[in-house]
Model the fold of this input.
Amino acid sequence: MRHGKKINHLGRKTAHRKSMLANMACSLIEHKRINTTTAKAKALKQFIEPLVTKSKQDTTHNRRVVFSRLRQKAAVATLFRDVAAKVGDRPGGYTRIIKLGNRLGDNADMAMIELVDYNELYNADKPKKKTTRRSRRGGKAKPAAAAPVATTDEEE
Done:
């Protein structure tokens, strides 16, 4: 039975695990995306999402709570200044995990974890190019026929 076994210990003692997650969170805040194993990425997601939620309200208490978990003043400043401004309207789900396959050396399952609002490829906020749908039934003939009509109107 696995009653009361909610946390993944990642094969480490408590202090080592907390330090590792704090360092990985600081790296994620600094670089906006990092590559790691899938198990560590899932643990990091649970670690950092509450901190990003706290950063949406810039109070002294929230800064101290986040600093007690991250332990780096520069990462806390970046989180409250830059990251919180981008995710202010988002209700949750600040990170995305993308699986990358297995690592060459030890066949570990690898993943990339990133902050959602910083990836330009997946953002829907970006203006899309206007695309026209072409049909198979003479779609090219209609625009070509419309072009001479427009030039004849200009000449008259």
